[in-house]
Write a structure and sequence with these properties.
Order of helices and strands: EEHHH
Strand content: 5-15%
Number of strands: 2
Oligomer: single chain
Structural class: mainly alpha
């Protein structure tokens, strides 16, 4: 996934912002939500957040 790609349309969070949160220690969807706000409105991007988390393990 391109770092500039918007993952969470509701909060305007990019893949790069999520990857940065992972690099800074986020290990769960909840960690990502707390760090970026992604996935906290409609939840439609939770699957993409999980894919990014899996890719970083």
């Amino acid at each position: 996934m391109d770092r500039d790609e918007t993952v969470c349309n509701c909060m305007g969070v990019t893949a790069g912002e999520i990857m940065e949160a992972i690099e800074n220690g986020a290990k769960t969807v909840e960690d990502i939500q707390e760090a970026t706000g992604a996935g906290t409105v409609c939840g439609g991007c939770i699957g993409d957040i999980e894919k990014l988390l899996e890719g970083e393990k």
